[in-house]
């Protein structure tokens, strides 16, 4: 079952030096699966996620042959229709959690508001739901956190609050941009278990953007590997360590390892041919 | 002699039922040129320790000394020539309306450097960004590119102690490797001392000789990198942390 079908997606920014192509013809489908997107910084991962939700700010331009949610093209929707899609049917956990929370509103009020937008509920019921949502992302002192403001949270707490917030409406698709990059391994496992459960038991589709190759190999079903705005390799996540593209190999080899101490880490030697080669499609 | 010493540090926020004891009775020493890691649970007080050292939280008790000198409650301008911090959140730490050039130029100016132009160029090269990013604004940069600007800004003062809060968690693995190599080079060239917070044990193992494990506002264990590599820990929480680290 295809939830999302993206064909030939481009994101462009006019700059003083000419048009910069941040995403260059990316194609993929998303089913009820965990689709990882990995790639170096600036390769276009976040822009791909944001473009699906039409969240690219002007003067940025989004073009695509198709971005279809269960067969309906999002590019043809009015801004009002898009607002109903965002948050309700497709949620995105942004890479910058504190930026996406309202700095002058308590976390409790924000969670309660999100819950009441999605469910008919009185304030008391919504408060309990908000506390449950915090507990589900392993926040133990929920009462205190509800009264606090975003700047009073640690990095990892901010990330978890965002995840709790995005899951409240029960979206069909979750786009999670570096959702666990600030979490310690134990909390990270718990958060992944929640997302995993939503995919397997509720049939949600998950786009999981991450730098963490080991994590993606462990957690996802399929992986798109992006370089310079293109998908250069697609593979099964459990085969990521056998990937063949020299760029993917380079990324894998640059990881520090506890079992193999090294004086210096190897870094990528970029080859111009990588960005010239045609992109690979992630559609199935 | 230690370069940085923290003794019986307590840090708290708020009052009454909103009071949070973010750090409780934390003590550690870092020798000149040494790299010390802080790892542990999310919310356990790692960032708060770094913020207390740089003077960003007013409510603390205990003793902090830098190069043998007690730090005053109010930090002097000269303090920041010695100690610089790279923040966990690369989004919040850059002014949205200042270009990369302005951020680095102002910082250099503030620290009394003259050859600002040449230094901006070198800093951008050092962190692997190069000239084409010089006149960009934060919203025109990806997450990793912003973090590199933040690292360049901290290096601008040529500090002796660098406090690094998750410096590479927003970076891809290749840029992470570049930054970690850069940190290695800087330590070799300038004898820099690092305190690094990271949730990635392999990163901490690569950079640090010793590390403290934190849980619930306390340091539960201080271990050396050999114990980390051998996954040999004493405290049950550290044992769990080592067990859970995938692929590392
Ligand atoms: N407003 C803009 N103007 C010009 N270029 C931009 C703008 N916004 C983003 N870019 C560029 O688009 C490219 C892709 O950015 P994107 O945020 O998708 O990267 P990313 O793969 O998510 O990287 P990271 O892993 O560092 O978050 C980057 O090179 C970035 O500098
Ligand atoms: N300004 C503040 N006001 C109130 N509480 C705060 C403030 N800053 C931090 N705290 C609280 O202090 C505790 C420790 O936070 P800190 O940011 O040091 O955690 P951390 O170990 O760095 O976690 P992470 O790995 O998630 O970044 C948390 O409970 C947090 O909510
Ligand atoms: Mg990104
Ligand atoms: Mg922190």
Largest sheet of chain B: 6 strands, mixed
* Order of strands across the main sheet of chain A: 7-8-9-3-10-11
Count the strands of chain B?
10
- State the secondary-structure class of chain A: alpha/beta
- Within CATH, the superfamily of chain B carries the name P-loop containing nucleotide triphosphate hydrolases
Task: Provide the residue-averaged pLDDT of chain A.
Answer: 91
Biggest sheet layout of chain A: 6 strands, mixed
CATH topology of chain B: Rossmann fold
User: What's the CATH C level of the largest domain in chain A?
Assistant: Alpha Beta
- What is the beta-strand fraction of chain A? 15-25%
Q: From the 3D coordinates, which CATH architecture of chain B would you assign?
A: 3-Layer(aba) Sandwich
Q: How many helix segments of chain A? A: 11
The share of residues in helices of chain A is: 25-40%
Strand order of the largest sheet of chain B: 6-7-8-3-9-10
Rounded to the nearest angstrom, the radius of gyration of chain A is 19 Å
- Total of domains of chain A: 2
Q: Average pLDDT of chain B, to the nearest integer? A: 90
Oligomerization category of the chains in this entry? heterodimer
């Amino acid at each position: 079952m295809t939830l999302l079908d993206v064909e030939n997606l481009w994101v462009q920014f006019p700059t003083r030096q000419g048009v910069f192509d941040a995403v260059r013809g990316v194609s993929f489908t998303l089913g009820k699966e965990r689709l990882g997107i990995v790639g170096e910084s600036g390769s276009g991962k976040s822009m791909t996620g944001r473009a699906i939700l039409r969240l690219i700010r002007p003067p940025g331009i989004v073009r695509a042959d198709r971005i279809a949610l269960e067969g309906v093209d999002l590019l043809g929707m009015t801004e009002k229709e898009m607002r109903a899609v965002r948050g309700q049917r497709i949620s995105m956990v942004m890479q910058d959690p504190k930026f996406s929370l309202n700095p002058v509103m308590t976390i409790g009020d924000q969670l309660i508001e999100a819950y009441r937008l999605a469910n008919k509920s009185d304030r008391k019921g919504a408060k309990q739901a908000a506390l449950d949502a915090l507990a589900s992302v392993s926040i133990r002192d929920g009462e205190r956190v509800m009264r606090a403001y975003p700047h009073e949270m640690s990095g990892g707490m901010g990330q978890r609050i965002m995840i709790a917030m995005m899951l409240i409406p029960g979206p069909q698709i979750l786009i999670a941009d570096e959702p666990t990059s600030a979490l310690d391994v134990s909390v990270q496992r718990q958060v992944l278990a929640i997302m995993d459960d939503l995919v397997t038991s509720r049939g949600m589709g998950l786009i999981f953007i991450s730098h963490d190759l080991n994590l993606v190999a462990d957690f996802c079903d399929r992986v798109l590997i992006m370089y310079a705005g293109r998908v250069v390799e697609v593979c099964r996540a459990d085969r990521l360590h056998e990937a063949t593209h020299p760029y993917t190999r380079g990324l894998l080899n640059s990881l520090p390892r506890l079992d193999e101490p090294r004086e210096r880490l190897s870094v990528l030697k970029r080859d111009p041919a990588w960005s010239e080669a045609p992109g690979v499609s992630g559609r199935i | 002699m230690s370069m940085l010493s923290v003794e019986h540090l307590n840090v708290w926020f708020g009052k009454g039922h909103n009071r949070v004891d973010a750090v409780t009775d934390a003590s550690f020493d870092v020798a000149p040129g040494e790299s010390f890691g802080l790892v542990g649970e999310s919310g356990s007080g790692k960032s708060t320790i770094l913020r207390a050292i740089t003077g960003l939280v007013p409510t603390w008790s205990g003793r902090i000394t830098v190069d043998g000198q007690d730090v005053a409650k109010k930090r002097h301008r000269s303090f920041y020539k010695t100690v610089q911090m790279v923040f966990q959140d690369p989004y919040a730490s850059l002014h949205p309306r200042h270009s990369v050039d302005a951020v680095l130029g102002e910082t250099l100016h503030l620290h009394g450097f003259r050859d600002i132009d040449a230094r901006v160029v070198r800093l951008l090269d050092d962190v692997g960004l190069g000239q084409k990013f010089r006149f960009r604004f934060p919203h025109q940069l990806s997450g990793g590119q912003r973090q590199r600007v933040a690292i360049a800004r901290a290096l601008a003062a040529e500090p002796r102690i660098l406090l690094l809060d998750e410096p590479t968690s927003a970076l891809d693995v290749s840029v992470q490797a570049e930054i970690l190599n850069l940190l290695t080079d800087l330590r070799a060239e300038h004898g820099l001392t690092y305190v690094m917070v990271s949730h990635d044990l392999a990163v901490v193992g690569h950079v640090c000789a010793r590390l403290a494990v934190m849980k619930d506002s306390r340091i539960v264990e201080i271990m050396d990198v050999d114990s980390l590599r051998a996954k040999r820990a004493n405290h049950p929480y550290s044992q769990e942390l080592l067990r859970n680290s995938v692929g590392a």
